[in-house]
Specification:
Largest sheet: none
Number of helices: 1
Strand content: under 5%
Radius of gyration: 40 Å
Distance between the termini: 141 Å
Low-confidence stretches: none
Structural class: mainly alpha
Helix content: over 70%
Order of helices and strands: H
Oligomer: single chain
């Protein structure tokens, strides 16, 4: 009886040890998978930040160009107004 109990306990210990190895293996695979997923997510986030920065730069360049065009139009309008005022108020030559 004692031998069968010891045999049963030994088999149970071996079985548990085998489970522990499988558990550790699965845990290692899970950790590797999580690390890979985190790396992919970080790469995607970095790419998204780069894309956003490029979009902001493009928008800023377009806004600067629009401001330049508006400034040119304002300056041309002011020149036209000065010319018209000069023409309307200048003494006529006889």
């Amino acid at each position: 009886m004692m031998k069968s109990t010891m045999l049963t306990v030994s088999l149970a210990a071996l079985w548990l040890a085998g489970c522990s190895d499988r558990t550790q293996e699965n845990a290692a695979k899970t950790a590797e998978s999580a690390e890979t997923d985190a790396g992919v997510a970080a790469a995607k986030a970095s790419e998204a930040v780069g894309d956003a920065a490029a979009a902001v730069e493009t928008a800023a360049n377009k806004a600067a160009a629009a401001a330049d065009r508006a400034g040119d139009r304002i300056e041309q309008g002011a020149d036209n107004a000065r010319q018209r005022i000069h023409e309307e108020t200048a003494p006529t030559k006889n």
